[in-house]
Amino acid sequence: MSTSTSNVHAHKAEIFCRDESRVDWHSKALWALREKRDRAAGSIPEWEQLRQIGSEMKLHTLTHLAEYLEEFEQNCIKNDIKVHWAKDGAEHNRIVHEILAKHQVKKIVKSKSMLTEECHMNPYLEERGIEVIDTDLGERIIQLAKMPPSHIVVPAIHMKKEEVGDLFHQKLGTDAGASDPLYLTRAARRHLREQFLSADAAMTGVNMAIADKGAVVVCTNEGNADMGANLPKLQLHSMGIDKVVPDLDSAAVLLRTLARNATGQPITTYSSFYRGPQDGGEMHVIIVDNGRTDMLKDKILAESLKCIRCGGCLNTCPVYRRSGGYSYNYTIPGPIGIAVGAQHDDTNSIAWACTLCGSCSYVCPTKVPLDKIIHHHRRLKAEAGKLPYGKSSYMPLVGKFMASETALNCSMAMARTALKILPGSLLKPFSGAWGKYRELPVAPNSSFEAWFKKNRG
Amino acid sequence: MSSKLEIFNALKSVAITPQPMPCFNIAPRIDDLVGQFEASLTTVAGTLHRDGGLTNLQATVDEHIAQGMQVISMVDGIKGNREVTATAHELRDIDYAVIPGDVGVAENGAIWVNNKNLGHRVTPFICENLLLVIEAKSIVANMHQAANLITLASGEFGTYIAGPSKTADIEQALVVGAHGACSLNVYLT
Ligand code: SF4
Question: Which chain A residues have a beta carbon less than 8 Å from that of B155?
Answer without folding.
Answer: 79-80, 275-277
